[in-house]
């Protein structure tokens, strides 16, 4: 590689790093805005049975995938990630309902999963008809995905601990 190519490569790497920093700052600002909007909203979400609501949202994601072929690849990727996280979390919730007594930690996690699912539904409902700036919704969806991933780690830890606890008590 020539000196000029090396210099160009270094410049591109610096620009890339700066863009990442700016994207994180913008994302933090957007997070503050939509947190205020959600907290100050005069409406509350209807209380649908957890598994029924998650099944409904998974169906809506499937419908979005088939009816909005024009969505850019990144949005499709984000909605697919939401879908796979929801499938995992639905499986966890189903297992806990079948095999575990009411455990306060599970109830709290269930409430957090439902809250994140409602948030995902809200953003997806904005993306589907093309309401508002797409970049805003993509950042918001990305943030919701992070919530789902955090919940996935948390539910796995809690479930494993409870199952280990049950095994130890049986011995």
The average pLDDT is: 76
- The number of helices is 5
Major β-sheet profile: none
Overall geometry comes to globular
What does the model show?
- The chain is built from five helices and no strands.
- With 171 residues, it is mostly helical.
- The termini are far apart.
The gist of it:
The chain is mainly α and 171 residues long. Helix content is 84%, strand content 0%.
Keywords summarizing the entry:
single chain; 5 helices; 171 residues; mainly alpha
Which helices and strands appear, and what pairs or packs with what?
Elements: H1 3-40, H2 50-67, H3 73-99, H4 104-127, H5 134-170
């Amino acid at each position: 590689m020539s000196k000029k190519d090396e210099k160009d490569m270094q410049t591109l790497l610096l620009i890339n790093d700066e863009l990442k920093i700016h994207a994180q700052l913008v994302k933090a600002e957007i997070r503050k805005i939509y947190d205020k909007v959600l907290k100050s909203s005069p409406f509350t979400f209807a209380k649908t049975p957890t598994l029924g609501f998650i099944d409904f949202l998974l169906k809506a994601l499937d419908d979005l995938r088939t009816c909005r072929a024009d969505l850019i690849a990144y949005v499709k990727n984000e909605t697919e990630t939401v879908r796979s996280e929801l499938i995992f979390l639905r499986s966890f919730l189903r297992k806990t309902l079948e095999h575990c007594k009411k455990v306060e930690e599970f109830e709290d996690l269930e409430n957090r999963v439902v809250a994140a699912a409602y948030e995902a539904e809200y953003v997806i409902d904005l993306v589907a008809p093309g309401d508002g700036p797409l970049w805003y919704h993509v950042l918001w969806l990305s943030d919701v995905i992070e919530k789902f991933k955090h919940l996935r780690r948390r539910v796995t830890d809690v479930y494993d601990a409870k199952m280990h606890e049950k095994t130890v008590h049986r011995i």
